[in-house]
Amino acid sequence: MLIDTHAHLDDEAYEGNLNEVIENFKKEGGKLIINPSYDRTSAEKALMISREFEVVYAALGIHPHDAQMADEEFYDFIIQNSDYEKVVAVGEIGLDYYYDNSPRVIQREVFKRQMEIAVKKELPVIIHSRDAHLDTYNILESFKGKVRGVMHSYSGSWEMAKRYLDLGYYISLSGPLTFKNSRKLPEVAANTPLDRILVETDSPYLTPVPYRGRTNNPSYVRYVAEKIADIKEITFEKLMEHVEINTFEVFEKIKR
């Protein structure tokens, strides 16, 4: 049984073969995929794909890279479509100080605004944070008790992960955990409690070993899960039992 809590199925990498990608995922035991958006176009596509494929759910939000493109029309779009039964989160949202594709002050403003939407619509959030963990944490802390969600494709230290866990967030791990040069993530995988861990691919990016260098797809979430299970010295099946429970806990609109 496979669950991928973060895959960009609307990406152009899947044009012409999305049916095959999803069918292969299902044949591998795939149960559900969450498709977060990063701008208005991808949000519209995520909605369309969720309507077309039973196993796919959508999250609506604007990525920090595109934060300067956010406007009232887009916020209204999120609010208006968030009641759809297959929209399960606001995301992906957050901060990215590595690329700084949008000014940092705007990133923070847009992040907070989308957190407010999550509060209003009673939805969890999917958080992107790169080289911005302190500011990310401070914003999430300001919403403590009002919103919970997932630290997507977590890349920080175990010390920082503990602080996110204390806020009630889940830690989601992806392909980089399997890389030979991964230093911090094995410690995160080892120490994150089983009732707070999730797995994802971030497809079509961050392809895990043994397919690193190729286009990622949701079926490869198995390799991330197997790595976590190996680190924790439990079976793959035991890990996925917890991942399934955790997924339904945080994304409450997904039908069991």
UniProtKB/TrEMBL annotation:
GO molecular function list: DNA nuclease activity; hydrolase activity, acting on ester bonds; metal ion binding
Which ranges form a coiled coil?
A: none
This protein's UniProt keywords: Hydrolase, Metal-binding
Q: Which CDD domains match?
A: TatD_DNAse
Q: Name one GO cellular component term.
A: cytosol
The protein's name is TatD DNase family protein
Q: Where, in this chain's numbering, is a divalent metal cation 2 bound?
A: H128, H152
Cited PANTHER family: D-AMINOACYL-TRNA DEACYLASE
Q: Determine if Lipid biosynthesis is one of this entry's keywords.
A: no
